[in-house]
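Office hours follow-up: a student asked to see two folded examples consecutively, so here they are.
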Amino acid sequence: MSKHQVDSDGFRIVPFKRFSKNKQTKIPCIDSKFEEQEIIDVSKAIKRIQSAVDDLRASDYWKHVIESVSTVLSSRKLKTIVCFGLGHIGECNISRYQLALLLSLKDSLNCSDVLVHDPVFFKSECTILDNLGLQVIAENTEAGYVISKQDPTLLYLPHCPKQLTNNFLWSNWGPELENCILICNSFASLVENHPKRILKETVPFIAKISSFVSEIILENNFVYTDIFNDTSIHHFPSITLEKLDKDFWIKGDKPNYENTEEFITSLMVEKLNI
């Protein structure tokens, strides 16, 4: 077995010669899943996270987020929050503040059922999340989470590849999307910056639903502008979805992604780690 170059975040560096001899991408090391690759002081990390929560909740950005989510929910009670792709919360400042938003939503919306997953989590980071009252999903479903058909679910994908969002939409493709609030990279920005043909080929479910989603663009006015940039709240009003015919909801097979550097599937991880 050849030796692989691993970066400080626990990712293996892989050159992709198809695009450029100097181009590299990162994939999670197969042996780094919930392993301990660096020592993290759990208590110190939790204090830093709590400090990030205090910073966030004092900001105008947070006020806009919670007001917007509360408006979308109206009188409904949020059942579950699910988050994919937080990254290394123990040491990364961006991940820490993205977690702070998740914790703030949990507390403000009084939601006890909060699930998180990232294949790069260290064991100590799982301990941190557990201590903070979050449930770590062990299996990498690549955002293939099925929401409740009766109660609202909030899905949080902080700067995740668009393929994860596409997977989530495929898993829940149907009028039940009215029960979903999705916080992720802006659909409007994605549609504006990519040709329709490319979107239909690469992320067909985002492309198809984008005309029927209501989007609340969050002004990027947090003190650290690289944390929540291009982030929006998306929801799917029932009054809009009810107008769509049955053929619209035919979803076909699970999406398959080939020749992409942006999104590395778990199957690709297994092959690339051999």
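And the second, which I mentioned at the end of office hours:
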Amino acid sequence: MSPNKKQGLLREASHQVIAGGSAGLVEICLMHPLDVVKTRFQLQTGTSDPNSYRSLGHCFRSIFGSEGVYGFYKGILPPILAETPKRAVKFLTFEQYKKALSHTSMSPGLALSVAGLGSGLTEAVVVNPFEVVKVRLQANRDAFKEQPSTFAQARLIIKADGFGLRGLNKGLTSTLGRHGVFNMIYFGFYFNVKDAIPASQDPRLEFLRKFAIGLASGTISSCVNIPFDVAKSRIQGPQPVPGEVKYRSCFQSMALVYREEGYLALYKGLVPKIMRLGPGGAVMLLVYEYVSGWLQKNW
């Protein structure tokens, strides 16, 4: 490979890493409070608990009243630390899988979805340890100043259960399912629909066109993958009975939630999830596209 070609590939990868990292950082800073609310709902096992949240509004009021405004930002450091590598991996691998699949007989539309699936599975492996720490911090209802720090929580998990599938990589199968399914629909829907709807010459209308498609993409993806998200929260969060492991694996947890709480329990946290990943998904794709475009023109 010639030096110029190597330099071109390195520049292209750098653009994808920088644009993907920027997209993730903007999205997490704007939308994290809704992620906290979503996780709290997913961890509830029933309404008999006197501390259970009755509604979305009640959850917001309870967190603000007992934990303060910082309660909405519990567990934000792990995703911030993970966002640059996570989104960099997400967008970089999506572009590489898409490029590789373009040489196959697969239709372009299907290739986009398969590339999204591949990028989601790769992203899940990178992000899962951060998710374990984040969920533990979000489940803690103590005041923000009283709970362990991010690094203290990580040390507690490692000391008790190590780095493996019982410790810092707990719930990996659920995370693979959550990210694989989400990205498969997210990228497949967004790029197929965007190519099908003509672009506008008006920059404002073009922005709205992309935002609307991104919003629909994030919303549909969230609705389809949420059972994996519920299973992940149950596995990675505190177990109902201390010292007793009730939620062990992805599909065992889904079956248990369905049997004990009904099928609607597999969609717990759907409203805050959509409120976060609908507009959040649109913001992420737009930031990625605009930052990537700016880098291609200026660097």
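Two things to take away from it. Residues 73 and 125 are 24 Å apart (CA to CA). The two ends are 22 Å apart (CA to CA).
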